[in-house]
Amino acid sequence: MMDLTYKTYFCPWILYKTLMKNFQSLFFFLPLFVICLSCKTTPSVVGDSFGAGVSKPSESVAFADVMQKLEVNDSVKVVMKAKVGEVCQAKGCWMNLVDPVATSDDALFVKFKDYAFFVPKDISGREVLVEGVAYKEETTVDELRHYAEDAGKSAEEIAKITEPVSEKKFMATGVVLLK
Question: Does 67 fall in a domain?
Fold first, then answer.
């Protein structure tokens, strides 16, 4: 009786041709894959990000709403849209946020969680999204003088600081500059 199954033999030439064909397609598709991965897909509204960034930009609340919530609560975890009023000119390690629509004169003093990141020193006047916790705290005279020095205030202005101030503050985990 005759065996109808095919016998396969190891043929180096066929193996070489098969591998080369696969490598050629690999060399064609690999650069395309890398190019696709390197394309950054971010929303057109979002600019540079600092710290952890902002997890849910679509859920941001207005500056005035956060200030209103702080009247009732001791702290509020939030993503907020605001305008940068002032930035630390030494390192960019803190900033003051103000209402972008100027409905109030309130300001929030922002520090960055664990001193882990800084913002550029030239972003005053820009709108930002910040994520973190807004809270109330008393700031000591020494701390106020330190911040005034960081902001580039004169020696006379720094000497006028003689009493602690109860302030509304914000501990940011992430900041995103808006375009």
Answer: yes
Residue 139, pLDDT > 60, answer yes
In the chain, DSSP finds a helix count (H) and a strand count (E) of 4, 7
Counting the structural domains of the chain, the total is 1
Q: Is the residue at 83 inside a domain?
A: yes
Is there a domain that residue 121 lies in?
A: yes
Where residue 76 sits, what CATH number does that domain have? 2.40.50.140
Q: What share of the chain is helix, strand, coil (3-state, %, to 5)?
A: 30, 35, 35
What phi and psi, each to the nearest 5 degrees, are found at residue 160? -75, -10
Q: What's the whole-model pTM score?
A: 0.69
**What pLDDT, on a 0 to 100 scale, did the predictor assign at position 23?**
58
What's residue 30's pLDDT? 53
pLDDT (tens digit per residue) in 41-95 = 433 345 899 999 999 999 999 999 999 999 999 999 999 999 999 999 999 999 9
